[in-house]
């Protein structure tokens, strides 16, 4: 999962209905949290609540938390703490805290945040009924509620994110996710395909299939179903133009999956494949279950099979015991493989994980230095890679407007902006790149 930033209010805003009770959703963390906030919103709307523009206009506030790193956890704690003031001013206000901070921690959290009314884990939506009498009475069939969410950054309904597998069966030594989200549970195949077909009938053009380990999809289902089968079925849904999936684990990035990407015309030529470190000893202590050689082999196979493919990865710097030489291994890997984008984080010990028992001996200043070194390297590489698009025509799916310009993404997932009169929302346009920037491209329509 790619941590989204910064925190977002996922309340979408229809015309106000005077007198209706209102809810406010505050979400941090990954796309999975975003999807679960959307589902909570759907439940609240069924109970007659409406989205509030601001938290101080709300009768219910739901905070959806992330604890993948200390920084995220601190932000959530700050937010929840600050809500105590609103609750004092309005004792009728109901507050719920959900997400990865909650699982197994309810008693502690109840002590720490006594002004919170309900604590519920990532998929315990039925607990929302404890918030108010309206919710207690509403007859919500949870199975009937959509699992997906439509791109809340843009709220244009062009792109949608669909969770297909919950939880994670890996136990990377630094990672809190398996403890908070449990073991893998794949959603039924037909349910997903039907949901995508329904979304397509409402105008959704681009679908991103989600999971902490999205390419473990199907391993827990009867038969031989895998992500490749699901991708093929979704590729056949009329109306869907683009298909993506996040986040893959290198161990399960099989030849079959790569061939499926090459065969299905709607699957975009972009792979996010977190490597985490470029050194085998570090990978072993991270319990990542693959080697640098395996990772390089997968990237080679992807590049040989999918022309024009773009790649991104995740890196952790300053893992316990990471020597300067091991860190250099990561730098070399990035230099050799030339990813379009690197999501990097400084190691943050998470209580309860294996590596939290090891001394976090690399000082903050050294973690920051390594972080900065990667940032400098990657800024250069990203700029060079974007520069090669100068004068090229890219197919851009327009998903919104930003600062007066149309905005969309290429199939390779690069952000592209262009100026043009008319309404281009939801259109796939050919854009000639005139000005490549480090993190995005500027171009003009080339129809
Ligand atoms: N399932 C995905 C990652 C999910 S967590 C995968 O296997 O890669 C999202 C990202 O957060 C990870 O890729 C990792 O880079 C980062 N992360 C997770 N735990 C962390 C920790 N304890 N400290 C720093 N970064 C961490
Ligand atoms: Fe965490 Fe590893 Fe599972 Fe990713 S694969 S969610 S990093 S345990």
Please describe what this structure looks like.
The strands form five sheets. Strands 1, 2, 3, 4, 5 and 6 form a six-stranded mixed sheet that branches. Strands 16-17-18-20-19 form a five-stranded mixed barrel. It has a four-stranded mixed sheet with strand order 7-8-11-12. The model has no long low-confidence stretch (mean pLDDT 93). The chain is an alpha/beta fold and 447 residues long. α8 (255-263) packs parallel to α10. It contains twelve helices and 20 strands. β7 and β8 (159-163) form a beta hairpin. It has helices at residues 31-46, 70-89, 106-112, 133-137, 177-181, 189-201, 227-235, 255-263, 280-285, 292-305, 324-337, 364-387; strands at 4-9, 22-29, 50-51, 60-65, 94-99, 118-120, 149-150, 159-163, 165-166, 185-186, 206-210, 242-246, 270-272, 310-317, 341-346, 393-402, 405-410, 415-418, 428-436, 440-445. The protein has four domains: 5-144, 3-Layer(aba) Sandwich (Rossmann fold), CATH 3.40.50.12160; 147-268, Transcription Regulator spoIIAA (2-Layer Sandwich); 275-387, Transcription Regulator spoIIAA; 393-445, Beta Barrel (OB fold (Dihydrolipoamide Acetyltransferase, E2P)), CATH 2.40.50. Bound molecules: S-adenosyl-L-homocysteine (SAH) and iron/sulfur cluster.
Question: Which terms summarize this structure?
Answer:
alpha/beta; Transcription Regulator spoIIAA; binds S-adenosyl-L-homocysteine
């Amino acid at each position: 999962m790619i941590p989204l930033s910064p925190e977002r209010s996922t309340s979408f805003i229809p015309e106000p209905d005077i007198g209706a009770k209102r809810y406010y959703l505050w979400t941090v963390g990954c796309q999975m949290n975003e999807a679960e906030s959307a589902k909570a919103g759907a439940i609240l709307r069924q109970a007659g609540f409406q989205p509030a523009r601001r938290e101080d206009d709300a009768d219910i506030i739901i905070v959806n938390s992330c604890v993948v790193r200390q920084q995220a956890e601190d932000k959530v704690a700050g937010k929840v703490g600050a809500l105590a003031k609103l609750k004092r001013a309005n004792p009728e206000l109901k507050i719920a805290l959900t997400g990865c901070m909650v699982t197994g921690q309810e008693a502690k959290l109840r002590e720490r945040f006594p002004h919170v009314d309900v604590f519920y884990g990532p998929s315990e939506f039925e607990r929302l009924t404890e918030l108010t009498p309206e919710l207690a009475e509403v007859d919500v069939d949870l199975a009937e509620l959509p699992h997906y969410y439509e791109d809340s950054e843009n709220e244009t309904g062009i792109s949608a994110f669909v969770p297909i597998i919950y939880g994670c069966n890996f136990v990377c030594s630094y990672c809190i996710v398996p403890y908070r989200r449990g073991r893998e549970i794949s959603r039924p195949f037909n349910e997903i395909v039907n949901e995508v077909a329904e979304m397509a009938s409402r105008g959704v053009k681009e679908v991103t299939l989600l999971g902490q380990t999205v390419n473990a999809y199907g391993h827990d289902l009867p038969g031989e179903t895998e992500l490749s089968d699901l991708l093929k079925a979704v590729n056949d849904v009329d109306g869907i133009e683009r298909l993506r999936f996040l986040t893959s684990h290198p161990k399960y990035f099989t030849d079959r999956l790569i061939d499926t990407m090459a065969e299905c015309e709607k699957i975009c030529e972009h792979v996010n494949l977190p490597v985490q470190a470029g050194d085998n000893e570090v990978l072993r202590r991270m319990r990542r279950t693959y080697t640098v050689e395996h990772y390089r082999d997968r990237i080679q196979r992807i590049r040989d099979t999918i022309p024009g493919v773009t790649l991104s990865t995740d890196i952790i710097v300053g893992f316990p015991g990471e020597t300067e030489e091991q860190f250099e291994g990561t730098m070399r890997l990035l230099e050799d493989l030339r990813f379009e984008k690197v999501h990097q984080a400084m190691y943050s010990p998470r209580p309860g994980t294996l590596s939290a028992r090891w001394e976090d001996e690399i000082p903050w200043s050294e973690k920051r230095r390594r972080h900065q070194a990667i940032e400098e390297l990657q800024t250069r590489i990203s700029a060079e890679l974007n520069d090669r698009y100068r004068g090229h025509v890219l197919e851009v799916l327009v998903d919104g407007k930003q600062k007066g310009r149309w905005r969309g993404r290429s199939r390779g997932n690069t952000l592209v902006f262009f100026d043009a009169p008319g309404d281009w929302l939801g259109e796939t346009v050919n854009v000639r790149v005139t000005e490549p920037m480090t993190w995005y491209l500027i171009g003009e329509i080339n129809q």
